[in-house]
Amino acid sequence: MDGDFPTANSVLKDVFGFDGFRPMQADIVSSVVEGRDTLAILPTGGGKSLCFQLPALLRPGLTVVISPLIALMRDQVRALREAGVAAAALNSGNTEEETTAVFDALRAGTLKLLYMAPERLASGGTDRMLAEAGVTLLAVDEAHCVSQWGHDFRPDYLRIGALRDALDVPLAAFTATADEETRAEIVSRLFGDTNPRVFLGGFDRPNIHLAFAAKNKPREQILNFAAARKGQSGIVYCGTRAKTETLAEALTDAGHRSLAYHGGMEPDVRREVERAFQVEDGLIVVATVAFGMGIDKPDIRWVAHADLPKSIEAYYQEIGRAGRDGAPAETLTLFGADDIRYRRMQIDEGLAPPERRMADHGRLNALLGLAEAQVCRRQSLLSYFGENREPCGACDLCDKPPETFDATEPVQKALSAILRTGESYGAGHLTDVLCGTVTDKVRMRGHDELPTFGVGQDIDRKQWSAIFRQMMGHDLIRPDPERHGGLRITHAALPILKGEDKVTFRSDTIEQTPRRPKVRTLVSDEDAPLLSALKAKRRALAEAARVPAYVIFNDKTLIEIAETRPKTLDDMANISGIGAKKLERYGQSFLDVVMGEAPPKPHPARRKLAGKPSGDIYDQLLSVQAELSRGRDGTGKPMSCSASLLAKIAALGPDRIDQIHRLLGDRLADRFGDAFAKVLASA
Hints:
The chain is α/β, with parallel strands linked by helices. It is built from 30 helices and 18 strands. It has a 7-stranded parallel sheet, with helices on both faces.
């Protein structure tokens, strides 16, 4: 920091590398610096961490941060140290040497930030240790963990209020999602009788593209979505542990680097997946919701849901893990009638009191309304959080407005069939009745004698499936757990049944998925080669420093470098995310990449392939070779193939993959064989 009296703006620029605050950050920072009790609700990616890290550098003494996940602490401490900040963590993941070093630093008074797991508060002597260390501020990350009704509840968060009273210091609490009920619970449990200053930030994440799709060969839908974003880090959320493993295997077979993650795995295996995801570029994690809270990886470029999330808050929190660096990110959420039935019955069969179940149905209704929306997706999402806005132009419904139709008559027919069959049957049997299909079950129950039998023959079964799904999505019908999931009519459906109201459904929700998805890129075709070179430099520096790639520079910073092409270190200093310490450490290395000589002319062997499909395969092989030149871990002996050899392999095509080993020989085949085979197989 320059000068004897650093300011919030000078620390923001010199340490964190930003020219200005994001919305609300400046006011929150001022409140925390002044020592006022503060509660800030900011969207994921809205810069919550900065709101307690920066004040810690402006206030005297030590700031203690209570944080729920060890992986999160490690990453934030690592990033702070890279920026020249004295930070450390105390948690069960520390080695004995690391813990000793932390206590030595506490005694010496050299730390500015200390991260602690909430479980640490249960051990005796913590209050005294912190008081002796000169704590002047207590910060609580993921403050919604204090809510006993939340799915992220952590019992040890209930001890924070007592710690705050014992230390008698101001408290700043931060969370990404908290409805009015949860906010009141946070204030009561953390702040006691004190009324904190509350900052309620906007919930919009304009850099995230929103999309939903009805399930139609869902595995293929997820594989296509990932294929269009190959090489970009992503998360796929699944509803079951088994599906995480089978889908991760399918993604791996399709040529992606993919790992499964769920609560049934051994702790060591889970930690290794977390570590790999933080460190590796382009890794896909297929996970249950056990994965994600506190994952501080800013360059997650996409999030997909293979199954419908639990609620609109869960959806918002899970997609919010994408694009935290502010660069473009994309989401896709798949949903189907089975998802809706499962989520309804999960609520009805739970142990929560009736008022809680009613609230949970309301939250699910909000998510289903978003899934079946007919106008701007972002408008629907933000209206739930009390915000109004114009159509966003950055969601699937703005990209392509949906086709709709007046569904009043078919819905009335379906409701009539439900009533006449005693509200005891699922959509499959009801479709048989409506379509006039005589099955043993229909005949045995006399449903072929009903007035509604065959009244829906003008609509095919696939369309009826979509109509029943949308009826559930609009909460016109619900599965009844006491009747083995038979569909029953809700009060919302009665005006439609009586002809007092109309209903409009989407007609385009069952679509065939494209076989060859268009590849999405982060920059223009002109800037793509430079961005690729910058990422390669970042990966090399990260491997040498043994830190995640984004700790060097995040994607948004590299994109800005690729698009603006700075010519001097002065130009480089104006790039967002490059502070003084990082400019000194890495600026010249990246400037050398930007200012490098013009790329060499293609090798004659490559020029012969110009205009042929094998030319593109050659380029992919060359890229794969560059990534593996020192082996998968980057520490092996450098190896490469000649241009003419690569041309021969490119010319093999997918029909002669078995000849790769013969052409490469044993030594090169061990290094490149499998990766080259995947390139040819996907050609």
